[in-house]
Design brief:
By secondary structure, the chain is α/β, with parallel strands linked by helices. Helices cover about 40% and strands about 15% of the residues. The protein binds guanosine-5'-diphosphate and magnesium ion (MG).
Length: about 475
């Protein structure tokens, strides 16, 4: 490798030297500004240092000589860069300014120089007396040299060696190695937790080898998107693993993967229950739950649906005498719907009202909203309701609740003998899947879905399709996509 470095006050001077020394076919490898040593830094001067090689030596670093030949056809212009700095190399065309990488540690700019005495392109403000060297209007190709070649390039012949040898930086620092090691540890950790999931609670083992493919396209997008709806990533992985083979066999199309995985996840994790109010024998339904989760509103929705759409008799009973407004709220709904309304203050009063009501009436009981961590004064009513198997107890859960509080509510309100769950405020969260694990683990069937304040429109019976379409709402997906990007 015959590489030489030339120093001069201007690039033009350096190029002249190169031309005289190496001939007109020489290649410029690098141009940089250096400072000559002075005495204790005094008297040091700025100079231009140009590294150049003859075509044979550069072509030799390529697997074949094609690029070198290509470059022979390209005219390159180098202007005097002593004013503008060593990196200021511009294209011959106006507004076209190809940048040449000059980092000799890793790359080698393949700019072939042809010296012309006539061309004087307008490159720099101070171009008046510059004898320009032509530069290609197209950006020169940056060639990544092989490690050995780089090493060789860094070995500068003695007579042209610069005062300060470029320092060879180690390829990987100790810190990077440490980081890599800790990342490896994390990967191992994740793999072992995956392995621990091989036996799922329902006995279906998850194929660990198949799970590896989950992290490849197109499965990984589905994994990310469904996980970000709040559905437990472990559930998503489990059901993604099931679609890998059908996808490979062409049984599932790419655009159906997400939907298929979601439907499979929901139907395998959640028990969906038919609306108990639709059964032949009208049911008595009590709504239980924390303050403000939507019990009274859901009662109004249910009452309106039964009374107005099914033209059946509806009786509303409220135990929520703690707030006057709560009684008024229920009475207002009862008036609009044309339902009976009864206010009771004790278990005895409740029992008396229930006994009086006709058998053909659909009875909806509104209970007091309570902090699930403070149910000490609720034992009487909870014992009563738990003992009444003919009264269905529906736990109302707000879908915006975080899973930990959801789990607490599910456990605490179980003292009422809760039989099913209504999920409200699905319209208020982009992570409607977050409570799915809680409901699934709790083992209670899901009965109703509420997704707004409108009575009775924003009420659906819970089933796989209704819940899936709520989770995949277009506006939510757009937000999820934004957050993923
Ligand atoms: N966005 C939305 N708001 C709801 C939903 N259900 C109830 N709400 C609102 O939540 C608030 C509390 O509802 P309420 O029925 O009084 O709760 P309660 O204390 O459990 O009886 C009210 O402003 C309702 O309009 C729902 O599904 N979506
Ligand atoms: Mg209420």
């Amino acid at each position: 490798m015959n590489i030489k470095k030339y120093r001069a006050n201007t690039t033009r001077e350096a190029l002249e030297k190169i031309k005289n020394d190496l001939g007109e076919d020489a290649f410029v490898l690098e141009t940089k500004q250096i400072r000559t040593k002075g005495f204790l830094g005094i008297g040091s001067e700025k100079q231009i240092e140009v590294s150049a090689a003859t075509p044979d030596s550069v072509a030799g670093s390529e697997p074949n000589n094609e690029p070198a030949r290509d470059l022979r056809d390209k005219k390159l212009n180098l202007s005097d860069s002593s004013d503008a700095g060593p990196n200021s190399i511009e294209g011959g065309e106006e507004n076209s300014q190809p940048e040449v990488q000059r980092d000799t540690d890793t790359t080698l700019s393949e700019a072939r120089v042809q010296f012309t005495n006539s061309a004087k392109p307008a490159f720099y403000p101070s171009r008046k007396d510059v004898d320009a060297v032509e530069i290609s209007s197209r950006a020169p190709r940056v060639v990544h040299s092989k490690p050995e070649t780089t090493k060789q390039l860094l070995t500068v012949p003695e007579e042209t060696a610069p005062e300060t040898q470029p320092k060879q930086v180690p390829l990987v620092s100790n810190r990077e190695l440490e980081l890599l090691r800790s990342e490896l540890r994390e990967v191992k950790f994740s793999l072992s937790s995956l392995a621990a999931q091989r036996g799922t609670p329902n006995g279906n083992s998850v194929d660990l080898e198949a799970q590896g493919e989950i992290f490849d396209s197109p499965f990984y997008d589905t994994y990310l998107e469904l996980s970000s709806t709040g559905i437990k990533p472990g559930y998503v992985r489990e059901h993604l693993a099931e679609v890998i083979e059908p996808f490979k066999n062409g049984l599932i199309k790419n655009e159906r993967i997400l939907e298929t995985v979601l439907l499979n996840t929901l139907s395998s994790k959640i028990i969906f229950e038919e609306d108990p109010l639709q059964l032949a024998k009208p049911a008595v339904l009590a709504l239980i739950g924390s303050t403000g989760v939507g019990k009274t509103t859901t009662i109004a929705k249910l009452a309106a649906r039964v009374a107005l759409h099914e033209d059946k008799r509806v009786e509303l009973v409220t135990l929520d005498t703690y707030r006057i407004a709560a009684v008024e709220q229920l009475k207002t709904y009862a008036d609009i719907i044309g339902a009976g309304c009864h206010v009771v203050r004790s278990v005895l009063e409740l029992e008396a009202v229930l006994r009086r009501l006709p058998d053909d009436a659909t009875v909806l009981i509104d209970t007091i909203g309570k902090n699930p961590h403070d149910l000490a004064d609720q034992f009487e009513i909870s014992d009563y309701l738990r003992s009444r198997h003919d009264i269905r107890k529906c736990l109302v859960m707000d879908a915006t609740t975080n899973p930990f509080d959801g789990l607490a509510a599910l456990n605490k309100f179980s003292m009422y003998g809760t039989d099913c769950v209504a999920l409200t405020k699905l319209d208020e969260t982009i992570r409607p899947g977050a409570l799915i694990e809680i409901i699934s683990e709790g083992g209670l069937p899901l009965t109703y879905l509420c997704m707004g304040q409108r009575v009775p429109e924003d009420l659906r019976n819970a089933n796989v399709e209704n819940l899936a379409s709520q989770i995949l709402r277009k506006d939510f997906r757009a937000e999820i996509q934004n957050s993923l990007n």
